[in-house]
Design brief:
heterodimer, A: 100 residues, mainly alpha, 3 helices, elongated, B: mainly alpha, two-stranded antiparallel sheet
């Protein structure tokens, strides 16, 4: 029997992988993918909880997250592409001009 | 006719606006044309309008007309209302009549000045302001005129503002006048709280039914503070001698003939209130007497031809205050009118002399001008004899009436009469001294000065004023009190002090006062004309102490400087240093510095590395989650 706990565990594992990728990798594109992974981990918890509680609210939240994520990808990828075009690199460690 | 009285004010005001915008484009001398016509027009209108007063004999009710123009501040009972009665008519005629002559004279005197048209703008503005002052039917409108003439005075004294002395004289006049205005404003507040209105019609109609003697005393004394400022009496007279920095027509118009009489007019106008309080009236008369004597002594020691006349003006205004203080309003106003004529003449004559001497004002550098300037000389003789109280010139009749009224009042006022008599002697002395120093004796001119008679446009007004000086005294002689009858409707229900009825006493008083004048002139003649230079110096050396004091005006300016100006300056400096620089500035700068310091400390957090922000975020999240897990929400 696959219970909601399994999904939650999987979601937690995915979230940690995503967070680790975000903190450890320096390529902006990979970091972006990590963020997507974290978002989808959260989506998974919403779906699982909705199913477990028989509540449609979780699915609603997921739809919102998907829409916002899609918009964010469009803007984020455009930024990364234009940064890569001007600097021939996508490493965030090189993009440290905004310092105090 | 009277319904359109606003025209009298609108004419000069309109021309002031016109000249302000177009005067410099029209240029000299045509810019003066509309200015002179406006004042002449106002004079003509006022003259025709005042004919009614002669037509309706003894119909005093009809002689006082209130012209309502529009509502202004209904809550104060202050409409834009003009009061047309014999008193305001007299003032209007003096202001516009003498004003018009001085306007004409100024065309010659200001010839060649780069701001010629601006001068006439200010003169017209002044005439309009003064007319608002005298025609107002409530204290609020009076106050508007009161402040406006102060402003015009400031503008005209510092007309040659590039001269530092002229600029500071203008400021001094303005500040000293403000001190008086403060008392005046408080007086208006007391009037409003006691009467609930500022309208003359209500306040001055039997005020005794509403206020008691103590309130009347308070109002009277506070009004006196204002009058003392505007009419240059002790202790606020100090601005007037300095006001001589302005062009001479200004000195004649504002600081002799019209503006300085505002205080006298105001006391006469509020005679109904002064009638309720013997104390207030007594103080007014005493201030006048002290000022008259005080200023007359200072005038003796002056070397500047205009400063002699300035102190003489202060002294003569003191006479008027003596008169109005004891409710001798007719005598006071009579002297106001005659003084306006002969003092304007004296100033314009002095201006003519200064003009001839290339701007020299020191009488020690004049002398022997009689032959060079025959018209100026002749008119100055008339004016000098008039102010010295020699019959049958104007000054004799009015001064004699004041002295007679004082004498008739009796008691304490006999002392004031004596003061007035001594002042008359001193007046004759210093005026004759001025005459002899300027017109007789050997020339002491500076090199290169070629005295010449002034152009006709300047001597014309001198001649007109000279003729008036001879004639104007006859409007109110003991034989025929024309002026008193004329003014009677304006003082309906107000107590009036009169000269004695006894003909013998009148003649005796007149003989005494004329004798004082003759003695004064005789001393001056012996001292400044007959006596050789050496004898005079020796004689003056014997009285060098008082003479030096007079020469420096008793050092009152220094005293005020030490008592008021310097402590005030010190306080200002302390405020600027301790309060502004050391307290407020430090506080403001300190806040800025604290923010800057904190910012510098926090700045390293912004490393610019996205991943370090991410790590901080993760750590923060872990802490928050841990907190929630351990402590609960």
């Amino acid at each position: 029997m696959v219970t909601a706990e399994w999904y939650m565990t999987l979601a937690a594992v995915l979230f940690v992988i995503g967070a680790g990728g975000l903190l450890l990798r320096s390529n902006a594109l990979v970091m972006f993918m990590s963020v997507e992974l974290m978002l989808n981990a959260v989506n998974l918890t919403f779906i699982a909880a909705a199913r477990a509680h028989g509540d449609i609210g979780g699915q609603m939240a997921v739809l919102f997250v998907l829409v916002v994520a899609a918009a964010e990808v469009a803007v984020g990828l455009a930024i990364i592409v234009s940064v890569f075009r001007t600097r021939q690199t996508a490493s965030v460690d090189d993009l440290s001009e905004l310092t105090g | 006719m009277v319904d359109y009285l606003w025209i009298v004010i609108a004419l000069p005001l309109g021309m002031a606006v016109f000249n302000h915008f177009f005067g410099s484009r029209i240029g000299e001398p045509r810019a003066a044309g509309p200015a002179i016509l406006a004042v002449l027009g106002a004079f003509g209108y006022a003259a025709v309008a005042s004919l009614d007063f002669f037509a309706s004999e003894h119909a005093s009710e009809e002689a006082v007309t209130v012209v309502h123009l529009f509502d202004w501040i209904p809550g104060l009972g202050a409409g834009a209302e003009l009061l047309w009665d014999p008193l305001s008519a007299t003032m209007t005629l003096v202001v516009t009549g003498v004003g018009a002559l001085i306007h004409i004279y100024a065309v010659g005197y200001m010839h060649g000045d780069p701001r010629f048209s601006r001068f006439f703008t200010y003169l017209n503005l002044f005439i309009a302001s003064m007319l608002i002052l005298v025609l107002a039917n409530n204290f609020a409108l009076l106050f508007v005129g009161w402040e406006l003439v102060g402003l015009c005075s400031y503008l005209l004294i510092s007309f040659w503002y590039t001269k530092p002395s002229a600029a500071s004289a203008g400021k001094k006049a303005f500040v000293v006048n403000r001190i008086g205005d403060f008392g005046f404003m408080v007086a208006l507040m007391v009037v409003f709280t006691s009467f609930g209105t500022l309208s003359y019609t209500q306040v001055l109609h039997e005020p005794g039914e509403i206020i008691g003697a103590s309130t009347a005393t308070a109002i009277g004394l506070l009004l006196l503070v204002g009058a003392v400022g505007k009419s240059a009496q002790i202790p606020l007279y100090v601005w007037l001698p300095d006001a001589m920095e302005g062009p001479t027509p200004v000195s004649a118009l504002i600081h002799a003939a019209t503006m300085v009489t505002a205080g006298v007019y105001m006391v006469a106008r509020t005679g109904a209130i002064y009638g309720l309080s013997d104390i207030a009236g007594g103080v007014v008369a005493t201030v006048g007497a002290v000022t008259a004597l005080f200023a007359a002594t200072i005038a003796i020691g002056q070397r500047d031809i205009k400063r002699v006349l300035a102190y003489s003006t202060i002294s003569q205004l003191g006479y008027m205050f003596m008169a109005v203080g004891i409710a001798g309003y007719v005598a006071g106003l009579f002297h106001l009118v005659t003084h306006a004529v002969f003092k304007a003449l004296l100033f314009l004559g002095a201006g003519s002399v200064i003009h001839a001497m290339d701007g020299e004002q020191d009488m020690n550098k004049m002398g022997g001008l009689r032959a060079k300037m025959p018209i100026t000389h002749l008119t100055m003789v008339v004016a000098t004899l008039s102010i010295a109280g020699i019959p049958p010139l104007a000054g004799f009749w009015s001064k004699d009436e004041i002295l007679a009224v004082l004498f008739a009042k009796g008691g304490y006022f006999i002392a004031l009469w004596a003061v007035g008599l001594v002042t008359a002697l001193l007046t004759a002395f210093y005026m004759a001294r001025q005459y002899f120093l300027v017109f007789s004796g050997a020339p002491r001119w500076k090199d290169g000065v070629q005295p010449h008679e002034s152009p006709r446009i300047m001597t014309g007004p001198l001649v007109v004023l000279g003729v008036l000086t001879v004639l104007v005294g006859f409007v109110n002689t003991p034989f025929r009190l024309g002026f008193e009858h004329f003014l009677a409707p304006a003082f309906e229900g107000v107590y009036l002090a009169h000269a004695p009825d006894d003909g013998f006493l009148l003649v005796a008083l007149a003989v005494v006062s004329v004798a004082a004048g003759v003695v004064g002139i005789a001393i001056a003649y012996l001292l400044y004309n007959r006596a050789p230079e050496e004898t005079r110096r020796r004689l003056l050396g014997r009285v060098s102490r008082p003479f030096t004091a007079w020469e420096h005006g008793y050092r009152v300016d220094e005293l005020y400087g030490r008592l008021i100006v310097r402590p005030g300056l010190r306080m200002a400096v302390w405020n600027a240093e301790a309060v502004d620089n050391r307290t407020i500035d430090r506080l403001v700068v300190g806040i800025g510095r604290a923010v800057w310091w904190m910012g510098r400390r926090l700045r390293p957090l912004q490393s610019g590395f996205v991943r370090s922000y991410g790590a901080l975020l993760a750590v923060g999240t872990v802490i928050v989650v841990a907190w929630i897990v351990v402590r609960g929400l």
